[in-house]
Specification:
Residues 637-646 have a biased composition (Polar residues). With 677 residues, the protein is of the alpha+beta class. Among the domains are: 3-107, Phosphorylase Kinase, domain 1; 114-276, Transferase(Phosphotransferase), domain 1 (Orthogonal Bundle); 287-410; 611-668. The chain contains 30 helices and eight strands.
């Protein structure tokens, strides 16, 4: 391919559709990608010595395609002649002809290949959509040929199925300018006409080499005839049973043998077959940059409905609709505050557009992207980061309902940085609905969270236990019970028992029930000594709870733990028999006067230390983090917390927690920003 090919900012991959070089005039078709961002491209490559007698038409196309710019002409991104890497050109008779010529274009595939890959639709609606897609593609070709005739003042000369390429979005693109000629006909066209254009696409005067008749007619006459043949072949290759009735008369007029009666191609676009919902959708997307905010809002809202959404295929959804949605999400008109520089506040019109876009975004994710994780991550990750940066409750709520979808597709690193960390502001939002939705949505992320973020989550859970909303306190207890297995041993021992103990004292009946059930669910994480000294003393009072359902659950917990304690007691008894340890008393020990041995006194002291509210110690540590704004007078009320008691959660242990529950909002506002209305 020549050493200079590496200078292109594109990577050239394997050849595709290798058996069709002949119809492309000797050009090989390669997949490629842009080196900087991996965007897919198509590369046409030809080795000059291998072209032989086709070299001159290939060079004519190489020169002409660089000057052709139209939405429905295959877009050229770069060209290279390895014999002349500086961009200069030379004639075939005097120039160097030992290297390669390359043309890099937007990603597309030959129309013939695309039609073969389109499986016939089984349903009536599927056939209808396929017919609309074909009509849209043919209208693209008509517009491109009309542009050549009216603006470029050229006849294409080789309109055929092999001169058309199709993008992933379903747009047809005109290419192959080997025979492009002004009028009167160029000598190049006369010389190469029969060798480049398929015979069935040539009009009668071309077959008869009646150049005078062609020169004396309008510029469109040759291409009009070829276009009629193209339309018939497209519908035939697509298996649609021939040209639609509404188009048959127009096609017949295009193929008339009388050159002077052959119509121009532009008026053909007025045919009703080209006015269909799919074409309307494509036209709106092509001109969306010029649409007003209200027009785009109506379009997005209608696109969400099943009837219109069914018009989309994966290529159209990802190549046209998705970029249009991104422009709506990040138009550059948002503002950020000094307090929260990463948060973006939208104007009201932008907010309405984003809320209309979100349902379509998630529909595309679920319909077209979930089966391709690499493409999902490439397209969705930047969107999610932008969306979570928007400070709006409605938008945040819509995102939270789809966290489970993101959890299945994004990498753990992105889930931590792009999803969980921005979500955390919802834990301390002033709206109770958003706090609760944030809590429920986080459950699926817990297995993927880093240790640092797990600790961060634990701190938010401690705060939520003092929430003013009883339903949030209840769901927090349920949440803690569900995530216990994902916590480290240290975090688990510090969190679950204090959390459950506090919830058992909640005046809200479902919260007490949830705590009892969570204790039973997490029983494997409690040591027998903790069950006897800390768990049961908190559960037993609920045997006489005023609510029958709570009493029933408390009895179930006690019965279960009594089985555990009896088994542990029997194990201890067997150990004592196998390893007897006689106790010795000091003769002058003053504690003997009270009937206690030194060992007994030590054991009692250790028991008192163990019975001290370790949950209080843990929550006391969190109190200093969560209540930093509380005044010293409030701290004075918590002096009893440090006093050891025989009860695992005595009055001293509850004092710190009550101060937390009285001022939950005061604690949270200093570390995280609330979302705006």
């Amino acid at each position: 391919m020549g050493n200079s090919a590496s200078s292109l900012p594109y990577t050239i991959g394997a050849e595709v559709d290798g058996g069709c070089r002949e119809v492309r005039g000797g050009w090989a078709l390669h997949e490629g990608s842009q080196k900087s961002n991996g965007t897919a491209v198509t590369v046409f490559q030809a080795h000059k010595p291998a072209l032989g007698g086709k070299l001159e038409p290939a060079l004519a196309h190489f020169s002409r395609c660089r000057t052709m710019m139209h939405p429905h002409i295959l877009k050229v991104l770069a060209t290279l002649d390895t014999d002349y890497p500086d961009g200069s050109t030379a004639s075939t008779s005097t120039g160097k002809m030992t290297g390669d010529i390359l043309i890099v274009t937007e990603h597309a595939m030959p129309l013939r290949t695309w039609l073969q890959q389109q499986a016939p639709r089984s349903s009536n609606s599927g056939n209808h959509h396929q017919a609309d897609e074909l009509a849209w593609g043919l209208s693209n070709v008509i517009e491109a040929v009309h542009f050549l005739h009216t603006t470029a003042q050229l006849a294409h000369g080789n309109v055929s199925v092999d001169a058309i390429y199709v993008t992933r979005a379903g747009d047809y693109k005109l290419a192959d300018f080997r025979l492009a000629t002004p009028m009167p006909l160029s000598q190049h066209f006369v010389q190469w006409n029969s060798k480049c254009c398929p015979q069935n696409y040539q009009s009668p005067e071309r077959l008869n080499r009646d150049w005078n008749a062609i020169n004396g007619a309008a510029i469109h006459t040759m291409d009009s005839y070829s276009l009629g043949i193209l339309i018939k072949e497209v519908y035939s290759l697509a298996g649609m049973g021939g040209v639609p009735d509404k188009l048959q008369k127009a096609v017949q007029r295009l193929q008339t043998a009388n050159i002077k009666m052959r119509p121009r191609v532009g008026p053909l676009l007025k045919c009703p077959i080209f006015q269909n919902p799919y074409s309307t959708l494509q036209e709106f997307l092509n001109g969306i940059a010029t649409k007003t905010s209200d027009e785009k809002l109506v379009f997005y809202q209608s696109l969400h409905h099943a009837t219109k959404f069914s018009l989309l295929h994966k290529g159209l959804a990802t190549q046209k609709v998705w970029p249009a949605l991104l422009q709506t999400i990040a138009p550059g008109g948002g503002t950020s505050s000094v307090a929260s520089p990463n948060a973006v506040t939208l104007q009201d019109s932008q907010r309405r557009e984003v809320l209309a876009v979100l349902p379509v975004l998630f529909q595309i994710m679920e319909e077209f992207l979930v089966h391709d994780q690499e493409e999902f991550q490439r397209l969705v990750t930047p969107v999610i980061e932008k969306m979570f940066a928007i400070s709006d409750r409605g938008i945040r709520g819509a995102l939270l309902t789809k966290v489970s979808l993101l959890e299945k597709q994004l990498t753990p690193a992105k889930l931590n940085s792009a999803v969980f960390e921005p979500m955390c502001s919802g834990f301390s939002d002033s709206a109770a609905q958003l706090r609760e939705l944030t809590l429920k949505s986080t459950i699926v992320l817990v297995p993927h969270l880093s240790p640092a973020n797990l600790e961060k989550l634990v701190r938010y859970l401690v705060r939520l236990q003092g929430d003013a909303e009883s339903s949030i306190r209840t769901n927090t207890v349920i949440f803690i019970g569900k995530i216990a297995s994902h916590l480290s041993d240290t975090s688990r021992q510090r969190l679950i028992l204090p959390a459950f103990t506090r919830a058992m004292k909640d005046p809200f009946t479902p919260c007490r029930l949830a705590a009892l059930r969570a204790v039973l669910h997490c029983r494997v994480y409690f040591r027998p000594k903790d069950v006897a000294a800390k768990v049961l003393p908190c559960v037993v009072p609920h045997l006489m709870d005023s609510v029958q359902e709570v009493r029933k659950e408390a009895f179930a917990v006690v019965d279960e733990f009594m089985i555990v304690l009896r088994a542990e007691s029997q194990t201890m008894a067997l150990q004592e028999k196998s390893n007897p340890q006689p106790q010795q008393q000091a003769p002058n020990d003053p504690q003997q006067q009270n009937g206690y041995s030194t060992f007994q006194g030590t054991t009692q002291q250790q028991s008192q230390q163990q019975a001290a509210p370790s949950s209080g110690n843990y929550l006391s540590g969190f109190s200093s983090w969560a209540t930093s704004a509380i005044t010293s007078s409030a701290k004075a009320n918590d002096t009893n917390v440090s006093q050891p008691t025989h009860n695992a959660m005595g009055p001293g242990g509850n004092s710190s927690m009550s101060s937390l529950s009285q001022q939950p909002q005061q604690a949270s506002s200093s570390s995280t920003r609330p979302l705006n209305n």
